[in-house]
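can u pls check wat happens w/ iron/sulfur cluster
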Amino acid sequence: MGQTIIQKIFQAHSPAGTDVSPGSIIWLDLDVRTARDFAGANVVQNYRTHYGDAPVADKDKTFFTFDLVVPAKNIPYANNQQICRIWAREQGVKVYDVDAGIGSHVAIEEGLAYPGSTFVGTDSHLNILGAVGAFGQGMGDKDIAFTFKTGKTWFEVPPTMRVIVKGKIEYPCTARDLTLAVLRQLGSKGALGRAIEFYGPAVEELDLAGRITLASQVTEMGGIIGFIPPSEEIVAYARQRTGRDDLEPVYADPDAEYIETVEVDITGLEPLIACPPSPANVMPVREVAGRRVDSVFFGSCTNGRFEDFAAVAEVVKGKHVASGVMASVVPATRTVFEQMLRSGVLETLFEAGFIISNPGCGGCASGHIGMTGKGQVQISTSNRNFPGKQGAGETYLASPVTAAWCALTGEISAPV
Amino acid sequence: MTTKPTTITGRLWVLTDPDGHLYDDIDTDMIFHNRYLHITDISQMGQYALDNLAGWEDFAQKARPGDIIMAGRNFGAGSSRQQAVDCFRALGIAAIVAASFGAIYKRNAINSGLPIVTMPGLTALADRFHSGDEVTIDFATGLITLGDATFQAQPFSQVQMDIYQAGDLFAYGQTLEEV
Ligand code: SF4
């Protein structure tokens, strides 16, 4: 019987003869294991407690990625980052420090995650790596300390569902609107405990940034991971980033077995927005238009790529953010920042009145940028709007294009 | 190796939302808010358990060691923070029963040796359970007993039972030659 993408990846990363049918528990070899700035200190603490000074299984497969609160804004975070740095030095482990950007994006740019690879870390959005056909998974600090020492972990093979997107994305809709359409249909539990494989022409045509956007919201659908089968462009990119010309992507067998197939038709799609209190509470922007907006946040691992900011620059060029609105931009990585700098996008956004921050997660965790006060209405391109998540205010999630229009008009407005 | 009990009895806390329904989608920010993420000492975590969940802000004061939590679907959705599990261990919570769990939360709980029990049919049976009820849970069979009634939940998987018996993932790892 044929295998799905996750089954093939798992088969190649487990002892010979392992049964990878759904529900089986396997020992999974991990190509890369990481921790980020905060939970990293707990990983170190767990490691020291249980393994003392013993070396990690493979220092060249072990990394820290600081992205949550960068540079540290308070003493506890500064302490935790320093705990990781010192331990990393002792162990000879590389740190992508506070200047690098969001770990999952750095992993793709640096070729640490590539089609068919396995990657774990303390970031719950690591399944974003499904964007390049890799298996990525967020885990707790105990789990990660264990993987640092052993290079492997136990994992229950999830069943795979297929999501086939019919129709095409047409401007002003973007990959984010497609993603919101899928979320609207699946809801917060539609993929609970499952892997997803995404198919359909609109998905196949997505560039890396768009694939990242879609893959990043699988967590909000309850899914373990969402794979977007790599296009030729993605494979070429991964070969270049890894320096491995022989890199072969992993695709599902034609006779693979799926637990469910869902069709999402985006024909005639209009811009969508996720209203408080959950990312799956999706409706057309039109239906909530006119609501006063206080702040707009552009960034996060969902929409923090150069292409996202270029789309914003397109909308705001020669215009200015509405008075009284705070609009902030946080590039996902230093590479994205550089692209913005050299292409003129940064200048366009600056002139339009945006606050521009160094790369990282920004306001997504209890970060530096974009927290809300009581009564504040925020439009955000990030991935979660649970109560209290972004502060005491109300957060709406939308595409960079929609968010740009909201910033210009000072109210929720559908882009044209 | 000492064996831990596979059957426990405890007082129930049924997490209901402001409308009185079993709470679905309780995410890790409601369980252990991100403003406390810098805390690494487990003994400091219990006091903040559920303090961002409407109606349950005072849970830490009410809970006693040995209590059992019951919740709806997708309990522990959201981030990978271990504190969302450890805060309950700090309070001595004996088990969490839910209709389903967020995937990462499930791992974190299993790896910490915190008993979690999935009961897929719970939502439809929610009105049978009330806070203060005494229930008995058999981890090996998945049977939950309340007075004369029994309910079927999922038994522990083998790896879950092994880790629970060993204490946690690290202790379990030492029992494996391979690892
Ligand atoms: S941007 Fe937000 S969701 Fe993404 S990795 Fe950072 S904190 Fe997590």
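Residues 5-14+23-156 of chain A form a domain with the Aconitase; domain 3 fold (CATH 3.30.499.10).
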